[in-house]
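hey
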């Protein structure tokens, strides 16, 4: 009986010793954090705050400088932690990198993940990518903390998934000129909140100068404008494909605001003539755009 108790006591001692070694190893292992950036939210909120517009074409964003600033801020907040990487989520036609997205992907410690863009320039699939990465990294204990720069309510499930595996999720936001630019349910779910102000983003956002066309330029004919509309439609269709056209057709004769703005800017560049305030020519431009699409489908 005494021998059995002695053997049991020895096994308990060995188990305790192993547990102490494991705890010591865990204590020596540094915490790891990652930064998750919803680029759609970033461009819209930072553009509105600094440049007064959410239109990406109206301002330049120094993404390399901003990413480095976010990494530095995380280094301060998570002082005893190491960076895994920065995840940059954005949309692209057919999930093909733009030149800007390619340059971001080439930065050290940055992973670009692309959702799709529909005909209205709306991101599709980005939230599910964020959830998938957050959940996977938390499940495999690859991160202990996640800094999430975003504001969409659809991110709540991503936060809950990561927290379910023990990771802490810290929501980063951008100061709103008016009201709030992050969903309340998202604010309720995260472990902490932090807002970056105008001074933080000012060095990285600069408004582009609007193109200036000669006031004496000859007013184009309706035929010229209609032809340019058809020309842009052909280019638009080649870049976006039939699926985007299917999304566009139900709105005929109207164009989504983003598509209409793209059409206007590109037409002005080709014509070297401002169509602002030229309601008749803008209608002709749209007619040319639609007529080309409708001859094909």
């Amino acid at each position: 009986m005494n021998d059995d108790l002695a053997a049991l006591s020895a096994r308990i001692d060995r188990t305790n010793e192993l547990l102490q070694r494991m705890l010591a190893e865990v204590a020596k292992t540094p915490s790891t954090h990652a930064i998750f950036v919803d680029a759609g939210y970033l461009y819209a909120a930072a553009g509105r705050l600094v440049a007064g517009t959410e239109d990406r074409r109206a301002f330049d964003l120094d993404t390399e400088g901003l990413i480095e600033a976010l990494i530095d801020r995380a280094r301060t907040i998570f002082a005893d932690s190491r960076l895994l990487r920065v995840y940059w989520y954005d949309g692209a036609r057919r999930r093909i990198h733009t030149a800007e997205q390619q340059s971001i992907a080439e930065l050290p410690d940055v992973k670009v993940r692309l959702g799709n863009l529909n005909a209205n320039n709306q991101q599709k699939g980005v939230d599910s990518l964020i959830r998938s990465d957050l959940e996977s990294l938390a499940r495999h204990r690859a991160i202990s903390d996640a800094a999430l720069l975003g504001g969409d309510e659809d991110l709540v499930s991503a936060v809950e998934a990561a927290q379910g595996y023990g990771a802490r999720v810290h929501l980063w936001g951008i100061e709103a000129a008016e009201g709030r630019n992050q969903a309340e349910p998202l604010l309720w779910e995260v472990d902490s909140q932090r807002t970056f102000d105008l001074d933080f983003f000012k060095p990285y956002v600069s408004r582009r100068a609007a193109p200036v066309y000669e006031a004496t330029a000859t007013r184009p004919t309706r035929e010229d404008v209609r032809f340019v509309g058809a020309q842009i439609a052909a280019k638009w269709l080649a870049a976006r494909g039939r699926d985007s056209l299917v999304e566009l057709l139900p709105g005929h004769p109207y164009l989504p605001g983003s598509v209409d703005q793209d059409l206007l800017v590109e037409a002005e560049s080709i014509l070297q003539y401002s169509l602002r305030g030229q309601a008749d020519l803008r209608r002709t431009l749209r007619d040319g755009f639609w007529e080309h699409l409708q001859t094909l489908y």
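The two ends are 90 Å apart (CA to CA). The beta strands are 31-38, 59-61, 81-92, 110-117, 123-124, 145-149, 168-174, 192-196, 205-207.
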